[in-house]
Amino acid sequence: MTADRLDRFGGWTAVQADATGFFRVAEVAGRWWFITPEGHGFLSLGVNHIDSSALKYPDNHAVWKGRFGDEETFLKHGVYRDLTGWGFNTIGWSQEVVVPGRTHTPPWGHHQYRWAGLPYCHLLPFSEMELWNKYPRYPDVFSTEFADWCDYVARASCADMADDPFLIGYFYADVPAWGGHPGGQQWPGAAEGDAAGQPADLQHIAERYYQTIHDAVRRYDPNHLLLGDRYEGRAPLPKVVLDAMVPTVDVVSMQYFPPLDGLLDLVQEWHGATGKPVLLADSAFHLHNRRMAIAGQAERGRLYAEWTERCFQVPCFIGWHWCAYIENLCRRAGLKDRFDEPYGEAIGPMSEANRRVYRVATGTQA
């Protein structure tokens, strides 16, 4: 995959479809793709959790001041250089965890995405029912307050981003607890439902949730993809939720961390249930993974290369977003250490895998 075969968004010019001026999804010759604004096939290779404050602790602030000093320089000359140099083509999700069980850092503004200069996905915080959230709040989706909140969230971001060709689309909640929250919190009315904390009318709740969000976004942005909730692949997801998202969401987005033995079966299952392409919106091989022992940085790179090849051979699989960019003291995982130094033993094989991905996806040679 050489640069002269890519359009300015990173789309592969060998795969052609109608150009609409914005990203969309389409099935071309039996394989699903994002389609770039210029009409070329695009598979999203993203990096998540890109937060400059990871370089502003007392012991590494000198690195920040010496190399960057301001956000624009960090994004233009740090993030863009790194991601493109490593074969990534997408800002997956900018926000980063800094306190376990609490909300993430603020989302990037439109100007930050423009400085970064890459296709990007943006998360719109319509709800606070994440599995990791120690203080979740389930919305009353039938209330005027929920509709008004969705309108505000969409108005605050989508009105500014609506004409940006580099925006791929919008995520909703990160790993929402549709099948019950580990802390015991429940949907309004769940006391009348089953023992898992699901109300009897979960189907109607899900339908109203997705429709209200769809209408709010489309009020301000008719152009971009709706990437929906980022479902946790290891958590229960009632079928009625998948059924409810189908009419208004363009892509099934999921989080799934190693071991990945069940990943591709789930990708096929959710694609079969919805008819939508599937985006792995958050995954990585972390050294401190509790479920899987990983020997070191070289092993991280080898596993990524192995699994991206397996995943992109599946025709409905359209992207992998890696968690995360620079280590901080909370997550303790990234492609670079806390002093902005890249883990070369991991990045080397990852970069090679990224540059093979279009050939892997189409079964073609260089």
List keywords for this structure.
2 domains, 9 helices, 33% helix, globular, TIM Barrel, single chain, alpha/beta, 366 residues, four-stranded antiparallel sheet, eight-stranded parallel sheet
Describe the overall structure.
By secondary structure, this protein is an alpha/beta fold. It has two domains: 1-42, no CATH class; 43-362, TIM Barrel (Alpha-Beta Barrel). It contains nine helices and twelve strands. The strands form two sheets. It has an eight-stranded parallel β-sheet. Helix 4 (144-161) links the parallel strand 7 and strand 8. The radius of gyration is 20 Å and the shape is globular.
Summarize, please.
With 366 residues, the protein is an alpha/beta fold.
Low-pLDDT segments: none
The number of helical elements comes to 9
Physical arrangement of strands within the biggest beta sheet: 6-5-12-11-10-9-8-7
Large-scale geometry: globular
Structural class: alpha/beta
Q: What is the name of the CATH superfamily of the largest domain?
A: Glycosidases
Helix percent band: 25-40%
Number of domains: 2
Rg estimate, integer Å: 20 Å
Order of helices and strands: EEEEEHHEHEHEHEHEHEHEH
* DSSP strand tally: 12
What is the fold named in CATH at topology level of the largest domain? Answer: TIM Barrel
**Ends apart, CA distance between termini:** 7 Å
Q: According to CATH, what is the class of the largest domain?
A: Alpha Beta
Strand content: 15-25%
Major sheet characteristics? 8 strands, parallel
Question: What is the average per-residue confidence, as pLDDT, rounded to a whole number?
Answer: 94
CATH architecture of the largest domain: Alpha-Beta Barrel
